[in-house]
## 1
Amino acid sequence: MSEMRRVPLSKVFVNDEVREAGLRAMNSGWYILAKECEAFEAELAAYVGRKEAVLCSSWTTGALMLHHAMGVCPGDEILVPSHTAFPSIESMIHRGARPVFVDIDETYCIDVDQLESAMSERTVGILPVHLYGHPANMDGIFLAAKKHGLWVVEDCAQAFGAQYRGQTVGSIAGAGVFSFFPSKNLTVMGDGGCITTNDSALAKKLRMLRDHGRSSKYVHDFVGYNFRFNEVQAAIGRVELRNIDKLNDHRREIAARYNERLEGVVRIPPERPWARHVYHMYVIATGRRDELAEFLKGKGIGTGIHYPVANHQQPAMRKLYSDLPRLPKTEEAVTQILSLPIYGELPLEDVDYVCDAILEFFGKK
Ligand SMILES: *Cc1c(COP(=O)(O)O)cnc(C)c1O
């Protein structure tokens, strides 16, 4: 009997060029914030279409120093979707600000029609998340933000290379924050992140904040952090960046195949006409989600749930706030969503294998 096929949920892109880049950096004798980091920052900024990209140790630390640099402080309120990775809200809480949770629209991103009703005197900004690689409705977000004088920062952790009306995410709002965690579309073989902006004064402040508030080797202008980035990962990231368009294009091909074969069987993920979705996750929805996941597991197919517990229902939030909202669309989605295997090199035969299994589960084959 032949061995069962195994299809993982995701897989990191590694080739000889990636390995050699890591080795080259290792042998260079420079390990922190040197030439590879400088080059990676310049290449990231050029790709995203902003003047500045500031590397840091993760999305979470990038957001923390960005909120710090922007003066986010205790009592501030920030509008954020509840349906996102938990880290989206941690950094603001460490600054003493409160996340105000907003429901989602059909794309699983923040529902712009519910922004105004979530605002109060204390609202200072909006943090939309380009969830699963689909851009949030930025025009709707800017409309509400301008009317009420709020800042907008993009959570681009899942959306490297995605576009909103032809504009690359991370270049639309005042600043964008990216993650290079191994599961994300662009990775650096470990933790990492960056902040993109056109504001050079902000970038300068962030570069000081990530390195102990230093203005020179032994002079510290203010109290900062150690959120630095390193050379080995930057060298690797530069090769990953040269491959990202090819890998994202293939993700889109995979999504097109899933769409074609699964439409009408499960709810397939929408892509708005103004969006270039990069399918960090390919997320279907069905009322029989748990049963289906079990069935696929039995066929060697990895799946995930992003995310099974909405942030406004997390124990950590219940301990902090007694007046959390009800968000019907989010609460329904978390019981139905299922992430199917997708990554930049996933063979289309594996996609067909997954589709065959899903059709078999629903008795359509
Ligand atoms: C992964 C992720 C983060 C956190 O990124 P880290 O680099 O792990 O800190 C934040 N927001 C979203 C939407 C994410 O997917």
## 2
Amino acid sequence: MKFISTRGAAPVLSFDEVVLTGLASDGGLYVPEVLPQISESTWRQWQSLPYDALAIEVMWPFVEGSMPRATFERMVREAYGSFRHSAVAPSKQLTHDVWLLELFHGPTLAFKDFALQLLGRLLDYFLAERGERGVVMGATSGDTGSAAIEGARHSEHLDVVILHPYQRVSEVQRRQMTTVLSDNVHNVAVEGNFDDCQAIVKASFMDQAFVAPNRLLAVNSINLARIMAQTVYYIYAGLRLGALDRPMAFSVPSANFGDVYGGFMARQMGFPIAHFTVATNANDALVRGLRGDLSRKPLLKTLSPSMDIVVSSNFERLLFDLHQRDGQMLAKVMADFQTGAVVLNDSVVQSARALFSAHAVDDAKTCETIRTVFEETGELLDPHTATAVDALQVTPAEMTKVVLATAHPAKFAEAVIQAGFSEVPLPTDMADLMHREERYTVLPNDLAQVQQFVQSVMG
Ligand SMILES: *Cc1c(COP(=O)(O)O)cnc(C)c1O
């Protein structure tokens, strides 16, 4: 499979190159040039496959040519073998026609494990093939950092440097990162806020004199391999819950649009998904974007912090398709957005509306939904998942509805307590998290000192 940029002016890349590259040189994002078309009879044949076997079938057309099939099979089995639930992505019935797709059984209790367990292994393999070492550098306000660390802790060719804002992430989230004591894992607590951390990472990636010698690698959701891994659970759940025989809608707690774009890609491969509902918290960039209004609003701090964003990076991938894959035209739209607000044209908005609905949910409604669902079903939702349950009110009623449960409630105690419940215990294998040894380095909010630290890691 070949990969092209959404802005039409960057080199066409192979899979291994795209995994190692991140952002395209023209500022765009990589997408598959052509997706494989899977026939209905093949979907039916795949209906009986367990998660890892299905994952291999779905992802192999992307990966083919970059490694032997047996190597990829081993990688996928290892990646999903680390999950706590033998079904990997089990579905639970919530009401007569609503199902909860539980994506929080991975090592760090959030859906990001699905992509990062695999991405860490892919990066390690491609670096080994090239005889190189690389360093993953990222900033986190919570879920991404710990998932990236867990995905790379056993890598031999990869160091991980994750910046988090000093004393500004929850204790569970910090400890999920800082108690991983592998030699290649380096946590930096920056004396600043999340934006400061992100600014340091951004500046480092723009600094070619720093990127090239250190082989800097990005694992944020612009990496196409993450989206690829996220196509699989839509298909897995869809096959189990009858998507081949009746219309099915997925409701997705969304921020950077990476998760829901995975579902969109599954649909582009011919998997019958009838509708997507995009749920946001009060940071509603996607709700406005799907109405044709690309604009920025100040960041709000909410009870669903993993959805607190101003600009939704992967939305550009959908816009590319909605503009008939015309990279030149999209480059112009994105250039205009760089300097101000953009109003998308009517035909683009209409085609988006045919497939997507969107709904923003504030903190009060999030807590109310956590309470109502518990009263009606006994399920305690995390706050991100609760937004997607509330957003079902804009989902076509006649469809079978699947809500993506993106995190375990134990990870977000603040919301659970505000909703009126007592704190949820961690899974038993993590019960001693609060007593494990931690290791991290506190650094000032200063680009030069952080870069010096990264260089010392690379030795
Ligand atoms: C990252 C995250 C999201 C948002 O996913 P996107 O791919 O950015 O849209 C939602 N819920 C949780 C728990 C997350 O960690």
